[in-house]
Amino acid sequence: MNWIIWLGAVLVLVILYMIFKIGNLVGLVKGKKDEEFSISWNNINAYLFMAFMVFGLIGFFWYSFAYFSDYDPPVASIHGKITDDLFWLTMWVTVIAFTLIFIVMFWFTFAYRYDKSRKAVFFADNTKLELVWTVVPAIVLALLILKGLSVWSDITSPASKDAVVVEMVGQQFLWMARYPGTKDKELGHHNYKLIDASNEFGLDLTDKNSFDDFKSLELHIPVNKEILMKIRAKDVLHSVFLPHFRVKMDAVPGVQTHFKFTATKTTAEMREELNNPKFNYEMACTEVCGRGHFSMKFPVVVDTEEDYNKWLASQQSWLSQNPEYMKYVPAELKEAAMIKAGIPLDNAVTVQTAAIK
Amino acid sequence: MNEAIDFKIVEEPKKPLAMNPKKFGMWLFMASIFILFMAFTSAYIVRRAEGNWQLFELPKQFLFSTVVIVLSSVTMQLTYWSVKKELTQRVKPMILITFILGIVFLFLQWLGWEEMVGQSVHLVGNPSGSFLYIITGLHGAHIISAIAFLLIVLHKAFQNKFDSVQIEICTTYWHFLGVLWLYLFVFLTLLR
Amino acid sequence: MATLDVHHQTEIQHHDDHGHDHEHHGNFWTTYIFSEDHKVIAKQFLLTGMAWALIGGVLSVLFRLQLGFPEANLSWLKPILGGWLDSNGKIDPEFYLALVTMHGTIMVFFVLTAGLSGTFSNFLIPLQIGARDMASGFMNMLSYWFFFLSSAVMFVSLFISTGPAAGGWVIYPPLSALPQAIPGSGLGMTMWLVSMALFIVSSLLGSINYITTVINMRTVGMSFSKLPLTIWAFFLTAVIGILSFPVLFSAALLLIFDRSFGTSFYLSDIYIAGEALPNQGGSPILFQHLFWFLGHPEVYIVLLPALGITSEIIATNSRKPIFGYKAMVGSMLFIAILSFVVWAHHMFVTGMNPFLGSVFTLLTLIIAVPSAVKIFNYVTTLWQGNIRFTPAMLFSIGLVSFFLTGGITGIFLGNSAVDIQLHDTYFVVAHFHLVMGSASFFGMMAGVYHWFPKMFGRMMDEKLGYLHFWLTFVGVYLVFFPMHYIGIAGFPRRYYSWTAFETFSGFADLNMLVSVAAIITLAAQFVFLFNFIYNIFRGKHAPANPWNATTLEWTTPRLPGHGNWPGEIPTVYRWPYDYSKPGSKEDFIPQHIPFSETPESNLPSENDQIKLELGGVGTKH
Known about the structure:
The complex is a heterotrimer.
Chain A: H1 2-29, H2 39-67, H3 78-111, H4 127-156, E1 164-171, E2 174-179, E3 214-216, E4 219-222, E5 226-233, E6 238-242, E7 247-251, E8 257-262, H5 267-274, E9 281-285, E10 298-303, H6 305-314, H7 318-321, H8 334-341, H9 348-356
Parallel strand pairs in A: 1-5, 4-10
Antiparallel strand pairs in A: 1-2, 2-3, 5-8, 6-7, 6-9, 9-10
Helix pairs in contact in A: 2-3, 3-4
Chain B: H1 2-9, H2 21-49, H3 61-84, H4 88-118, H5 127-158, H6 164-190
Chain C: H1 2-23, H2 28-33, H3 38-68, H4 78-81, H5 93-129, H6 137-157, H7 187-216, H8 229-260, E1 271-272, E2 275-276, H9 284-318, H10 325-338, H11 354-366, H12 368-382, H13 391-408, H14 410-413, H15 416-422, H16 426-456, H17 462-488, H18 508-538, H19 604-620
Helix pairs in contact in C: 3-5, 3-6, 3-18, 5-6, 5-7, 5-8, 5-9, 5-16, 6-7, 7-8, 8-9, 8-10, 9-13, 9-16, 10-12, 12-13, 13-16, 13-17, 16-17, 17-18
């Protein structure tokens, strides 16, 4: 591998030197009339521009039509469909404009290459023309802006009250999901000063909403239901990126951000659609966060409502998995905590004694 | 004969805009300082709007220093007028007074900081205090640069050299820092 | 005609006088090192910028090797990279981030700001407006040496044991504030900040000088409406610099305090490396606002000089006036103003107020209009021209092509709703490398080829120039065009490897193509280097005006001495784009030729000005 690169580099240098030498020699043979402008080289450059334009455009269109599906991640959310439409609208507008200008520009460079017998036209301005090409792009852009703004305001509008709430927490270099639990459907308070090796969320156990919160190392969401994803980070900036749902939102330490979306296809449906039984939704980090930035993968599963509820029911609250933290629960809430967290009451005695110890 | 007349056609050109380049450069420099402080005050507003903003009394020393810096602007202006009217014997004392007032200003700012420490507002802590230290500190640093400039002018004055352009530039800079402080003072008073 | 002859005579006379005045004092140090001559300072900026471009390019090839050939064993690079390679000969992921960060910082600030603007503003402003030197040669010298110091600090930071800054060139805190988060945020980041503070001082000194010179030191007749577009571009660039760099300074200063003195401007609620930090109440988003308030204008600080240079070169080599001079100035002005009110389009997904997002979408997409006008004007300038493909012209056409290709993807990214998916992916990388990076780099190259004869008094080899152009032009397209596809597929920026994700793991072949193209493009730059260095010493002597151009710098002798014109500074009578004027025998009429000498080609309005010209003589008697 390496020696190929070295060899290539050496070869390129040798070729360059040869070209240079030959150029000089040819110049000597010709009697070195360098003062005169070289019309043949001028034509060569003009033809090369033409060739570049033709082959460039052919390559671009051919590759795009032949292979684009490889680069177009399937979309599985409601707003993702809409932003994709806007993306494609923009794509058509810009590709048409691009192609036209590209052709015209290189055609001009070719057609008006130097010719001794011709004189350039003194054409310094034309108000009408300039007005036209100021106003036309402005109108087209105005349309794109209007469409974009209406989509944007839909995406960023407040989530409905019965949206499924999930909290994503980013840290170096992994994601964690916190669910509000089945009993109260509210996320408990958190405080970064309470974070320790077990209490990774910094759960504030004086808040009764925190008792039934549970942690998950997979993001499970129900299909066709609005999800409100609340996002925060523990150390540095991260960014939640769900490519298939067209979701991206930064995770900022000290600030809570959020994004709402609705998934439209379960994992199973997507596997079928793509004919790929191994397909999985994924979450990535898109804000550089250090050494492991490229490996912050978080698996995402979209379930049918039934499966989702089944999964929910199978989850254990964080508190029940870490009963030693009962000691942080205020005395008057202890019983409520155990009920909510799903700690069996006959265990209560052991827990109490553990707390006293 | 004819030659001489034509020669005049290509005489050394006259300047299209008659501002001294150094003076103009100083204005640009002041513009960039102004932007710097605009950035800080905007950051202050943005950060303040986010809440978690600790309130404390603005030290009253800052009020005194405001008076001092206004006075120093007056004496600086008198210096400039003295140079303009070629009353050279008045230049030196005026520069000296301005210089002393500048030092007093810095001293008062320092007392203001001590007062803040007395209220247990430290550089490290809630951003409301940190911002105040940084903004006043940076302004103070610019005052120090102006005092250095003043010393150069003073040094020249003792050699009985009076460069009216230089003194004018110095005066402009001094006034600018005074006005900048007035802005900061009003800003900090209104947006606690 | 008599006037013209006499004019020549007086010039010769004065040449003798000034020869003694200007050229025979000063030793090596004052002539080449601590020179106050704007032309020498320009060359200093150019050479330093080129050295940095080479370093920045090599860094990019290093990380492209990782991306294109993830399995390759790079232990043959051990002599250079040392401990940054692991035992399998793979680049360390943290070093990868440092490479990306340094590549960005170097290219944006040291190459395309100092190397481009520093070189050509210094070289061309006095020469094209008809001034003997900058307003303050001393400040100009300081400006270079601050830049040099800044470069030295940044260069040293490449070799320290914890590595250079590695949090991305945008140095977002908290990553850049916490050495616990990444080793590069230790000493490396401190040096980055020191270097950047020095750079800001250098840039401000330069900008103040450029503006002052343009406003105060134009020669007789050089009204603003007769300024070449290059000067307009440099002037507006300097204005943007003065208004935006202080803001970067403020952002950096607050970061320095957070890092070294424990304040909490940007830090809040952080639990890292097993401990909760005491900082509370800060906002990382505040930094982004301050940074991008500079950062976005910086894009135009990089781009405008390149556009100015291109305007000049395209007009000269099309042998046509630039189309729509006023529209060109107007659009640059408009772009310069708008550049200050669009910064938050870099922050659509930071969770900022959605209404602000809407406002910034609107403002951002408005910029497309003046940009489109510029492209149309360039294309129309080519129309019905008589185009000579000098290397400078090739690079200028290349610039317009990149400006088009890269600019048009801005319409996607500026639209906040579409940006959600594309933000921080390779689509963005492709966009800004084409529209800002490559376009500006091509502007810089075009400028070097075009003004080399005036800088060094010799000609560069055209054929090597063609070779350099075609390899680079095709190479750049091959590097950055495929990135659009990868970006649309969602592949995020600054990823060391994509194998962790099924979604992103399918583009190995395209990534390899990109890397190979990057290596070839870098190799092509050695053609240029050879051409450049060889011809400084061995090139053919250049005529005073090799391109038959109209602007004032070509009225100076082959190697202008300190003071630029041996005789009097020429007076300007006409705009800088009188190419192929109907009726004129030559296809160009330089700016210093009075209308009274060209009755055959004057427009009616210009005939009226003859009276003024003569009147001017009358008053001087």
